[in-house]
TrEMBL record:
One of its GO terms (cellular component) is plasma membrane. The keyword Nucleotide-binding applies. This is small monomeric GTPase. It comes from Pyxicephalus adspersus. One of its GO terms (molecular function) is GTP binding.
């Protein structure tokens, strides 16, 4: 039986052209829109179609936000290293994801953008690392303007999605396994008997 609500490994179209629905979150002006598009890349020798949803920092309807929070498979939470308020909002976005999805298992990558503006820096790299540790997710400082570490962000997020899907599949297998071995044990005396008679 297919696990409910999860794409099967064979699903998603011809030979591995799996699509990943990624959502960009973050306060207004942090640089989310610099990288929002559809891209096709290879990650760990497997092709991936990234469908990236750009969201607006503030003025959005809650109902719509809940919808893409549910539909998204991976989330990039973005702040600007030049804007402390956006750093605080990063934590709020993480909480929002939890509130909508009710699980800490959602694939997330934390991004501190505008790393090129070092003279305007308000958030140290250590603060970013520490927040990512709290989120239990990968972290990158990027510059969308110079395309520093942008690809790494998408790669890390797809890897997170794949890893969590593997974990879910394994957990599912483990759930089924005890039943199988129990059935074998129940059947084995009969099998032996039959064997010795014939
Ligand atoms: N120096 C520098 N500027 C950047 C960088 N990324 C984005 N910007 C600039 O920051 C401004 C805001 O970028 P957007 O991509 O529009 O920000 P946004 O997060 O989409 O903002 P909202 O759509 O309002 O939520 C623009 O002027 C960008 O050119 C970066 O890495 N470095
Ligand atoms: Mg934008």
């Amino acid at each position: 039986m297919e696990p409910v609500g999860r794409p099967s490994s064979a699903g998603g179209g011809p030979a591995g052209s799996r699509e990943y629905k990624l959502v960009m979150l973050g306060a207004g002006g942090v640089g989310k829109s610099e990288d929002a598009y559809k891209i096709r890349i290879r990650i760990d020798d497997e092709p991936a179609n990234l469908d990236i949803l750009d969201t607006a920092g503030q003025a959005e309807f809650t109902a719509m936000r809940d919808q893409y929070m549910r539909a998204g498979e991976g989330f990039i939470i973005c702040y600007s290293i030049t804007d402390r308020r956006s750093f605080h909002e990063a934590r709020e976005f993480k909480q929002l994801i939890y509130r909508v999805r009710r699980t800490d298992d959602t694939p997330v990558v934390l991004v501190g953008n505008k790393s090129d503006l070092s003279r305007l820096r308000q958030i140290s790299k250590e603060e970013g690392i520490s927040l990512a540790r709290e989120f239990n997710c990968p972290f990158f400082e990027t510059s969308a303007a110079f395309r520093y570490y942008i690809d790494d962000v998408f790669h890390a997020l797809v890897r997170e999605i794949r890893r969590k899907e593997r974990e879910a599949a394994l957990a599912n297998e483990r759930k089924l396994k005890p039943k199988t071995s129990m059935w074998r044990r129940l059947k084995s005396p009969f099998r032996k008997k039959k064997d010795s008679v014939t």
